[in-house]
Amino acid sequence: MKSTYSLFIGGEWKESVSKRWMNVIDPATEEVIAQVPDAVAEDIALAVNAAEKVQPEWGNTVASERSKILLEAAHLMRQRIDKLAKILTSEEGKPLAEARGEIAYAASFLEWFSEEAKRIYGDLVPSSSASKRILVIKRPVGISAAITPWNFPAAMITRKLGPALAAGCTMIVKPSELTPLTALEMASIFEEAGLPKGVLSVVVGSDASQLGEAIMSDFRVRKISFTGSTEVGKILMRQAADTMKRISLELGGHAPFIVFPDADLDAAVENAVLCKMRGMGETCVSANRFYVHQDILEQFVKKMVEKMSQMKVGNGLQEGISVGPLIEPAAVEKVERHVQNAVQKGARLWLGGKPLENTTGYFYPPTVLSEVKEDMLIMQEETFGPVAAITSFATEEEVIARANDSRYGLAAYFFTRDVGRLFRMAEQLEYGIMGANDGMPSTAQAPFGGVKESGLGREGSKYGIEEYLDIKYLSVGL
């Protein structure tokens, strides 16, 4: 890993107009691991200028050429998986095995959309007149921008960049200032893969709101894709209205995990731990609220405690570590506040429950709570940490109502061997992503996105590329 990086603007590696630099911190050691230029609004403008120049040519490139570049970038990512994983772990914290998994997952979006680039089809619509023909064609939206989070610094870029490039759109990526290194490494990969200059820029800075406003206020940027908090998503949606940008939002979640008495209990527990502890619980689809039928509650809790007590906490670069640090001190403080609020209101603490003492880094151990109530913070807000909050339920109707009693609607999970119940749950739960006997449903070929205040639009799958295409129709007089 390099000690200093440059911004990637218009196909060139540059310092920021500001001439300032910012530090990248390893959350496991609290040490500075690299420095990157601290971009400002003028850097965004340079990136948009470069994209504007090349957009017409890139938008008219034949699909097979765009496909070839995406496929080569995916190949290079897989070829360098160990290097990229170490950089990702160093700046984000997740264990090395998970980081490798994320790089492979990120590459899968490039591979998927390399294929979808060749399947952008139009239509011939029957006309109401014998002297006319109606053609429907799809064209790239134009310059697009991706604002991505720190928790998946590779995959959240490719899930947006893949369809944008496949559709013929140029893109400016603004990664999180907490995890910029992976994004800049990926820019280098696309440069090597043969992407024309100006098609991709990666711009990162400490003032995220300034950079976001520069993107949103520029009319030339026609499409925005954002992954992050609901609060920021609402701000971007308001800003998008001024220039009528197309916008996709993948926002916060508060996922219920429901276990019925007929479920395979061991499978449910195994999936619960995977779903809860992936990325230390710092994912938008992590299980937050565990609803377990009252007949099996005690067994479930004991099995969860047994599984989670075996998870080793430490620096993700070390062998055998399954729980890395949280991203920053504020993340630890939020988890601590949620746990303490629950305990004070009567929740039973089985495991963990306080930050690790006398250690360097932002660590919080796996924690299990039972007897949680709906008025506790942990049942109302997204915790984003390694805490399993468990409560009981009695009937199917009750648990559906409680699971849906949230302004969020991103992901939900339920475990049952009753086929009829499976379909009832799928139809009645108000969530965009559902795992039925599956705690890890995310994949490149499936449409990822939420309902209610968890966002708009879908990423991945055949639907993902539609977000970057305009539909036009042509009426031809014969």
UniProtKB/TrEMBL annotation:
GO molecular function: glutarate-semialdehyde dehydrogenase (NADP+) activity; succinate-semialdehyde dehydrogenase (NADP+) activity
Pfam families membership: Aldedh
Domain (Aldehyde dehydrogenase) ranges: 13-473
Keyword Manganese: no
This protein's UniProt keywords: Oxidoreductase
EC number: 1.2.1.16, 1.2.1.20, 1.2.1.79
Protein origin, superkingdom: Bacteria
Statement: the UniProt record of this protein carries the keyword Oxidoreductase: yes
Family designation: Belongs to the aldehyde dehydrogenase family.
NCBIfam families assigned: SSADH
Xref: PANTHER family: SUCCINATE-SEMIALDEHYDE DEHYDROGENASE, MITOCHONDRIAL
Protein name, UniProt field: Succinate-semialdehyde dehydrogenase/glutarate-semialdehyde dehydrogenase
Source organism phylogeny: Bacteria, Bacillati, Bacillota, Bacilli, Bacillales
